[in-house]
Structures are given as C-alpha cells and as structure tokens.
Amino acid sequence: MCSVDDFCEPKAMRHHPTLMIVKSVNVGTPxxxxxxxxxxxxxxxxxxxxxxxxxxxxxIVGDRQSDLTVHGGPYMxxxxxxxxxxxxxxxxxxxxxxxxxxxxxxLTTRGLVEDQVxxxxxxxxxxxxxxxxxxxxxxxxxxxxxxxxxxxxxFWQSGRCGFYFSVVEEGEIAAxxxxxxxSHIIDGISVADVVGLHRGxxxxxxxxxxxxxxxxxxxxxxxLSERRIK
Length: 230
Description:
Layout: E1 21-27, E2 31-35, E3 38-42, E4 47-48, E5 53-55, E6 78-82, H1 84-92, E7 107-110, E8 122-125, E9 128-135, H2 140-146, H3 150-158, E10 163-169, E11 171-173, E12 179-183, H4 191-199, H5 205-213, H6 220-229
Parallel strand pairs: 6-7
Antiparallel strand pairs: 1-4, 1-7, 2-3, 5-11, 6-10, 8-9, 8-12, 9-10
Helix pairs in contact: 5-6
C-alpha cells in the first residue's frame, strides 16, 4: 500500500509544480461496523488499487456505496479529495495514520483544490470525462473511519470538503494519470464558495445567484434557493 508521502505514480510525474494528477485510485465495498448501539454498513474504508480501473456511470469498478441516499448515483458517482489537505489533517490528528482513501475518496488528487474547481467543470482523466457536481457533506461514517466523531464537525468547518463528480464519459483511470480541465464555467461558482454560502460565511446575493444558475446537484441548490426566499 502506498503511504501519504509516496502515493502511487510514475517517478517522472513526481514534484511537477503545475501538473494536475491522480495520486491514488481507491475503492471499497460495504462492511458492517459497530456504531454506538447498532450495526451499520459503510464503504468509507477504501484502499488504493494498482493498475487501470474502469469507471462506469455510477461508480468505479471494485467500489460500491452503502447508502445511495447520501452517496453514489449519477451525481455522486466518484468522490475526489485533494492530497494537499493531508498535511493539514496529519497535524490535526498526529496519532492517526493517514493513508490514501482515508476520507472515503475514490480519487486522491494533486493540483485540484476547492477554490479553484467550479461546479460544472469537466476533466479528462485517463479515457474518462468527469464533471464536478457538488461539495461533500460529511456524515457520521467519517467519524467511524477516524475513530472519533469530532472529525465530522472539524472537517466541515475546515472547508476541506473535496468534490463529487458525475461521469460524462465512461473510461479507465489509474494512479499517475494526468487530470486535464476540458471545460470551465468562467462566471460559475467554486466548490469553496458553495460551501461558504451554505455555512453562512458568505452573504453575497450575486454569489448566490451564480450558485443557483450552476449545474449544482443534490440538496445544495434547493437549500440555497430556500435561503434566498427567506
């Protein structure tokens, strides 16, 4: 298994200052775990895979979501999380061994962060094309993965939420693949701004209108729209 400091990638791609790449492709399947006084199913325990893997409409081969009401489906098919955030979390939780896929992400990425990624942006990765659809809202299962429930609130407050993708074109991807932005909504809204609006950190009517025009999926647009009406 690759470590946080040495994710699987070709040596020629290491330490490139501008390259956007996939550092790790991670998958997992439902497993029963004890949570307080009950047993729940979770797929948040993901591990890196070696070699090329297929991406289909709703997930990556070898990966399966446990609760399709909050993960998976056409607009949450693939979850990406920036490798850049791992250093922050290693300082927050020095006793937790962070490995690729620790946050339940399918793609651990380098060069993509929330304030630079817009809702609706499309990226070619390997032979697949993915589109950014929404930020990630953490749930209690992240606490199960870390063995501490305070991570859920701290994750949300940090703004380091990552982003969900839909699959525009099915294909194959692998660790080390370059990420190429092929479509960008210039007057759109970043993932970071959507989170800021939802948390109430940003109160801009212009920003809110951009969010409502964006191809934003899930409950995000509905909740922001209700906020505008109030």
